[in-house]
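=== Structure Prediction Worksheet ===
Name of assembly: unnamed complex
Input type: mixed (protein and possibly other molecules)
Chain count: two
Listed entries:
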Amino acid sequence: MVKSVSNADKDELTDNQSNNEQKRAEIAIKIATELTDAPDIVSDELIRTHELKMETVELSHWYADKRVLSGISLPIFKNRVTAIIGPSGCGKSTFLRDLNRLNDLISISRISGQVLLDGQDIYDKSVDTVQLRKRIGMVFQKPNPFAMSIEKNIAYGPYIHGVKSDEFPAVIESSLRKSALWDEVKNRLGDNALTLSGGQQQRLCIARALSVEPEVILFDEPCSSLDPHATAKIEDLITKLKEEYTVVIVTHNMQQAARVSDYTAFFNLGELIEFNRTKAIFSSPERKMTEEYISGRFG
Amino acid sequence: MDDKKKFGGTIRFKELMNILSGHVSDLSELVSRMIDNGLIALLEDDEDIYKTLRDDLVLVHTIFDALDGSAMSSLALHQPFASDLRYIISSIKIGNEIHRCAHDAVHIAHSSEFVDRDKKMFNGCIKDIGELGKLSLKMFQESTQAFINKKALEFKEWQKQDDKVDQLHEDIINDINSIMEKKPEWVRAGVSLILATRYIERIADHACNIVEESSYVVTSKRGKIE
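=== Predicted Assembly ===
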């Protein structure tokens, strides 16, 4: 405040200046930390310094003679959400299903290139696909709970993988808590899962995927059949899940990719057009095609 | 306001909005101190404070850029609606108003350079400039707090405050002009003080603009403090 200057005032002024310097330093550190924690673009430096959970190397995919993915090389960072966007038929779901070998079940399907999980190729002959899918869980577009009780839906996976039945209650509670469903169903665990709402069923499917303690969770359009409120719950859940898991999500909804993901890959006609930090993709994409797609000029 | 209810949307959006709000708060606090120090520099002819203000200005630009980035991310990634959308748009505008006040504070501090204190130049006017500075600083602080706390202030009350500042500003300029007519050798110092007075009056104008934006965020209605 404006005042006449006495010695006491001068002391106060000196104190104020000292406080100002401290405050200045605090703010500068805060902003520098923000920038360091969230660099705007994916760079070689970022790939070198951030842990990769998965990586595809020159991954191509054919259905019979038709090539649907062409040489996709994509890093998937640990404990981050990576979104795959692109118009219908661009190969994003095929790519997702290649990440846990779900396409192996299609006889006319074949791939070339590598899909690495913790540096190991999941298409190596020695890999047990059942164990692989335990490590890489999947949640599908439409909620698909089994027509059995809520608790049995959760316990089924652990049962198949040899977990003892006396451990089921803890697994059920833990999985339902992680999927933010526990408070809503804890008093009706014996009810048929089909009695749950669509949003609850989808969270049950997420809990079911979590029950076998995966490391990566793949989401294929997880909210396409849900209303905005249930969608927001799933999106918040994905944000929380990334603290423990690595998440890859395929979505038609670009806004959803923008809201939930840290990194976004844009596919078109089986090619990876652009991969970057989500913020960069949605505010200043490098490729003209990406700009046109996200701004609704094609696709 | 309950922090959880301050912003809608997902967890990530709330986090981003809290960062944006933090930038507005940091910027307001820093520039409030800069205005205070700018006035002290002018009234007490303290050159060291002027140098400090130059350093502060660098930080103001850093926070302003960060605020801009947070606003851009909030818009690009979360497609906000209603009051959240208005808050972001107004944050950008208010950031600009505060940023200009920071420059005004530096100019105010610099205005002391041509006033020879040994000759007791314009002593009475300088005292009045101090009063004007107090009023403008108070308006700046109240306006930024209103925005941070999402409050709509009473326009009529602000109209009175702005009128008071305008009147005092005019009186000071008239006084300085009268003195300059009698003492032409003091013209350079006089012009410098007129400019300082103008910068201070502009801070009050910026505060009014901030109050208008705060009101828009809360009520969704555009209003004007004439």
